Amino acid sequence: MTQKNRTPDGLVIVDKPSGFTSHDVVAKMRGIARTRRVGHAGTLDPMATGVLVLGVEKATKLLGHLALTEKEYLGTIRLGQTTLTDDAEGEITGSSDASKVTREAVDAGIAKLSGDIMQVPSKVSAIKIDGVRSYKRAREGEEFEIPARPVTVSSFTVYDMRDAVAEDGTPVVDLVVSVVCSSGTYIRALARDLGADLGVGGHLTALRRTRVGPYKLDSAKTLDQLQQELTVMPIAEAATAAFPRWDVDAKRARLLLNGVRLEMPEEYAGRGAVAVFDPDGRFLALVEEHKGKAKSLAVFG
């Protein structure tokens, strides 16, 4: 491939279709972008749709740092039924009349699941227990426990509450919700735990991710659109959107690229990854402050 038509380094913001795994989307993008160097920042369950951030070429080195950012979702929780997977993909494992559940009880349940909480991920998830994926253990009928882990649910809002009747005739309640949360939060676990707290069970029936860090749905493209025209957000633009920016002079830029740990201004202390740019606006590296010096996380210059 010539330099002229080489795939640019950058991010591709995909509106993932339902039924695709995150890996399916990566495989598809490898074909569209004509490169093996494609990765994703944080998985999205097959049932879910919406923002999936992919990195192409050098931008794959950004992904681990982007995966740690805040996420935003729109979803539908069905109260009155539990499933094996805590979402609509799994078989129904229990039904209970939810018609008596009040809005006050729902709000009280949501309050308990907001803020800094300990969450037990769904058993049918990609989390590894002693080196084996949790979903593999679950499918083989193993009995096992997943330890609870700290997550932050900064916003959990109910937009609508509708009475419905499930296919088996059970009176259920569907909640349309939005959630803003930290990386690693399972929305289907929130649905499961809300239903359990209300005594009727619950699972997630629809989920759409509307934001990953600064990248929103309005800048996402479907795979069909990307097949027509590959839209890559240049790596410098992607870094500026996601991280604090530190502009250095030409001398410091040279030193940094030669592995010298520069003194960092105090304003960047404790801010995590920081994007460093040279006087020409070239994105050089991701660094973080360590004892007043710039510790390199990934070099791009």
Automatic annotation (TrEMBL):
Pfam families: TruB_C (PF09142), TruB_C_2 (PF16198), TruB_N (PF01509). It is an enzyme of class 5 (isomerase). Keywords: Isomerase, tRNA processing. Residues 31-187 form the Pseudouridine synthase II N-terminal domain. Residues 188-230 form the tRNA pseudouridylate synthase B C-terminal domain. One of its GO terms (molecular function) is RNA binding. One of its GO terms (biological process) is mRNA pseudouridine synthesis. Its EC number is 5.4.99.25. It catalyses: uridine(55) in tRNA = pseudouridine(55) in tRNA. The active site is at D45 (nucleophile). Residues 243-300 form the tRNA pseudouridine synthase II TruB subfamily 2 C-terminal domain. Belongs to the pseudouridine synthase TruB family. Type 1 subfamily. HAMAP family: TruB_bact. Responsible for synthesis of pseudouridine from uracil-55 in the psi GC loop of transfer RNAs. This is tRNA pseudouridine synthase B.
